[in-house]
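Dear U.,

Please find below the material for section 3 of the report. The protein was modelled together with zinc ion; I have listed the sequence and SMILES used, followed by the predicted complex structure.
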Amino acid sequence: MCTLIAIIDPNPDTKILFFENRDKPDELFQGDEMRVLQPNNVVALFDRRSGGIVAGYSAETGVFGGVTNVPGYPAKGSRGVVLMEVLTESANLHEAISFLRGKLPSGHYSSANYILGSNEAVYKLESFGKKLHVSSPRKRGFATNNFVSLTGEKIIPASRARFNWLEKHFIRKRKLKLEDFLHLGSFHNEKVPDAAVCRHSHERLGYTVSSFVFEITKEGKANFYYAPGPPCTYKYEAIFLTS
Ligand SMILES: [Zn+2]
């Protein structure tokens, strides 16, 4: 749950591009897989241990979301389950934001960054105990494992380095295409190794266990890609799912 990017109108042919490289979580990892969840036809990267999701897109409502863990406030509530609930139970982006505004400040959930969006806007939500910060609506949203607006998290220098690198060299590019995102998944960043997006445990930076990328074209066609391991080794497969 470590590198998360969503961009609206990234190029003239594409409405939404979404990227998540999932790095080995602090909990015991038991594998993940692509599933379609009901209601709302949510195409999701499903986590077998928690029974929640890392990221997903509702083919019915057009609302999508992802979560990255932020260390510092551990709690019993599953971030992946709350993300699954918000995507399967909300009729639109407004409802989805309201749903998390209602749930997260209970203090029952471990600290995290959430990205929620639709074809209109992207929001970033930072959650730490009973504190919640919701960004203004944007065209581009991204997150690693640290906060920008809230404080209190346990700072991971490599996560900060990755955030800074992405902000400077990737997110601001005027045109981004699906190929750029698929390439990013296996990016080892030889110049700034701490800012690698594809991560390997021998580098002390965590280990990328899977990757999920999707695009929604201007015509409304949805294309999903999943790599069941670090994308440098496990090539992306196009996913065709029916519920
Ligand atoms: Zn790699």
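For the text of the report, you could mention the following: The longest helix spans residues 157-169.

Regards,
Y.
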